[in-house]
Amino acid sequence: MIKFKERIAQMVEEQIKEITQISLLELMEYIEVPKNLANGDYAFPCFRLAKVLKKSPAQIAQDLANTMKMDEEVIEKIEVAGGYINFFIKKEILTKEVIQEFVQGKENYGKSELGKGKKIVIDYSAPNIAKPFHIGHLRSTVIGGALYRIYQYLGYQITGVNHLGDYGTQFGKLIEGYLRWGEEYNLDQDPIGELTKIYIRINELCKQDENVLQACRDNFKKLEDGDETCIALWERFRALSLQEFQKVYDVLGSKFDSWNGEAFYSDKMPEVITLLEKSGRLIESQGAKIIDLETEGINTPCIIQKSNGSSTYATRDLAAILYRARTYDFDKALYVTSYEQVLHFKQVFAVAKLLGIDEKYTKGLEHVSFGMVLLPTGKMSTREGTSIRLEELLQEAVNRAKIIIEQKNPNLENKEEVAKKVGVGAVIFNDLSNSRIKDEIFDWDQILNFQGETGPYIQYTYVRTKSILEKVEPLPEGIEIDVTLLEDEHSQMLLKIIYGFQDTLIQVTEKNEPSILSRYLLDLAKAFSSFYQENRIVGEKQNLQEARAYLTNLVGQVLKIGAELLGMEMPEKM
Ligand code: ARG
Known about the structure:
The chain contains 22 helices and twelve strands. The protein has helices at 4-16, 24-30, 49-53, 57-67, 91-105, 135-153, 169-181, 191-208, 210-224, 228-252, 269-279, 313-328, 342-352, 359-363, 390-408, 415-432, 444-447, 455-471, 489-499, 501-511, 515-534, 542-566; strands at residues 42-45, 75-81, 84-89, 119-123, 157-161, 282-285, 288-291, 302-305, 332-338, 365-370, 373-374, 440-441. It has a four-stranded parallel sheet, sandwiched between helices. It has a three-stranded antiparallel sheet with strand order 1-3-2. A hairpin with a 2-residue loop joins strand 6 and strand 7 (288-291). Bound molecules: arginine. Arginine (ARG) is lined by residues 123, 126, 128, 163, 165, 317, 320, 335, 337.
């Protein structure tokens, strides 16, 4: 593929290399893609050169443009606008490039080996056993899943870990509750519902009676020490919960390479303590072992071992870092959780530096945090005020999608199947449509609006490309279209967006931000609407119809590849 950005950066570099030492890579980073085609396909801003060259950006742009040696193979013309030099790519070259890439890539358009040899571990979803799978876990599952697929598409070797919350004092509590009142609850019918009830009830009792709380803590200690009764109960709770979680994963199509949860690290704790002791930083405080992180600029110390000898959430994460470094030899280890855990990961990443592992690993640790999901009030059932049942939420999305589909297309076949794709796709896209750190408001009407910035809008646009293509004769395999017929601004806009697909995926991995792909798909869908409004397809002269149909097909393919990378499924009709 011709790298237009690089070619432009080379033109600029040629001009300034005598005067400054700015690298080609850096110059490439300066280059912008103007929103408006009137400003060219690429723009080079001269603002950052102003300091070095001691001239105004506008003057620099003018001077550079005057003497610029044009890369005539790809550049049609350049123009100066204020502090920018605007570059216009030869239309024919852009069109040919995109088509050629597509002919080669087909349903794998944009795929790459860029990440070959690089290993990524992504820790996502991670619900807590015996507690409801809540909407925050949904967000983690969706964001993590999208990143997983995108890294993989770019050739990285990726391992998805579901670091289940299957350990900790809450299990001591559940065990205590179950031992006291087990027969009163029917775990087989509604395991998580029933376990939650037990959990709430024992918590109440703990508040009233310090001795009960102590018994719960002791139970967890017993569990860590291998007590048979405790282990058997823990195993049962875990298995029942996993069955429930699996229902959600089935709907979302989520898969994990490892299900090693917190409990998996129970026997790997002593090593963490030994290593931290060696670092000389582990200190005793009221019977517990802690690490003071004041020097690292973190005010809250990290508790490594509780006074009764049990491990903590942080210790288990430290053991997991050791394990993952050894087992997966990762270049990056990502943790997808809500921003509520910012402090936790700051502490853990700081303490990880004291474990004596290679810097490569501690540098690769990254918290991919996201904002809260603000729940709507009203019909959607809320439990304990904050958590809702995800299965119910997904089912409601499907039901609502079905109603809309009934109205829009009463004769559609497979309504059930389409409603599932649209409803679930709407929820997934909503989780990914804004920058992840933003809080998100869950509003049914917005999420399912076929004309809004939504998953259904992307699906709807895809379906439109399909129905247009049905109206023209099928394009023969290997057809060569007349590329000069795609020089109007709408076609060029589409081609330019399609050209930028792989670059978009790369940006997603650089920032661990799937919304960059969601926004891209919205831009593509919108550009297609304008294209279709201005350009007739069916009924045009044969070669023009062919060229436009060809482009329509490309748009549909890219929408599909992109949406599937996000985790959505595409209906062929809706
Ligand atoms: N189970 C945790 C929670 O629900 C999330 C775990 C995230 N991963 C990790 N390695 N700490 O809050």
